[in-house]
Specification:
By secondary structure, the protein is α+β, with helices and mostly antiparallel strands. Among the domains are: 127-170 and 207-264, HSP40/DNAj peptide-binding domain; 270-363, Urease metallochaperone UreE, N-terminal domain (HSP40/DNAj peptide-binding domain), CATH 2.60.260.20. The chain has 9 helices and 18 strands. It has helices at 6-10, 18-32, 41-57, 60-71, 108-115, 120-124, 138-143, 284-289, 347-363, and strands at 80-83, 130-136, 145-156, 171-173, 182-187, 190-195, 204-206, 218-229, 238-241, 257-263, 270-272, 275-283, 291-296, 302-307, 316-319, 325-326, 329-330, 333-340. Strands 11-12-18-15 form a 4-stranded mixed sheet. A 3-stranded antiparallel sheet has the order 1-5-6, with no helix packed on it. The protein is elongated. The termini are far apart.
Length: 364
Amino acid sequence: MAAKDFYQVLGVSESASQDDIKKAYRRLAKQYHPDANPDNAAAADRFKEISEAHSVLSDSDKRKQYDQMRRLGAFDGGPRRARGGPQPAGAPGDVGAEGFDFGDFGGLGDIFSSIFGRGGRQAESRGDSVEAVVEVPFRVAALGGKITVTIPVTEPCPTCSGSGGAPGATWSTCPECAGRGTISFGQGGFAVNRPCPQCRGRGRVPSQPCPTCRGTGDVRTERRVAITVPPATESGSRIRLRGQGESSRPGGTPGDLIITFQVQPDRFFRREGLDVVCEVPLNVAQATLGTRLRVRTVDGKKVMLRIPPGTQPGRKFRIKGQGLEKTGRRGDQLVAVQVTVPDELTPEQQELMKRFAESAKMSF
């Protein structure tokens, strides 16, 4: 089983910028998101793979560690089977139950474990993080609020409690890994342990697999999660919800849920930093003679705005303190006026406009 190259997963080069990585992730996440591919297990697995790649490459520290592993040859072709039975601890090339040992490379073991799957106690102690792109209405993103989203997750099978065996099944030592739970694969000058494909890392096999999960121990389900959207949220903003990701094996802790917000456009408002911008129409008479308008603000209130005589198309008026608030700062609302010209005039209106034009010409 070949290791996953995260750059290939996202379809970017190893020199790709963070912006390139973000764009590739958004494009692929939208294509393979489970909401767009209901009942498509392959798309769900692909989405999980894309999210895993993005979680590593979008973090500068994790990406640096990951690149170190690539330079060490972790992706030079497919790994080959090295050995499958019990081995003495600390044997040359043995990675042990805790994952690959890079010695002084610190956190590389954590990244390596995420790349090569759930092997060993360290990988099983915590569930996988789940990433999701969530669309948020403009006003909710601007003012803050709560939304409820449905997140596809993998959880322990309720029938077998994650064991993979049918109720009442008998258990025996796995013949493939001799009860160790892992099989060692070698590549270049190092080796890595993978969970045994026959017993799925458990070290033993049931006489009959669970009829619900077919022996995997996991089922795909959906979880409804209430999310608090912070005020002045922008597209691309991310939050992490601890313990709301994939469930772990018994005794471990759940993973996290990482939400990336995508703000929906509004028909009336748009953002410029903390300022809110809108456009209002004026007819020729209103722009020429001046008027008063009731203008809607982003919080739903209406403010009276005075338009002076002779207002030109495109002029902007500022309503102080009616923008977005963040870290103690508050923006304004900018109102741009657009002068509209009627398509048709009645004979009386035409006569009045002619008089007006003659008057304007004489004064000029």
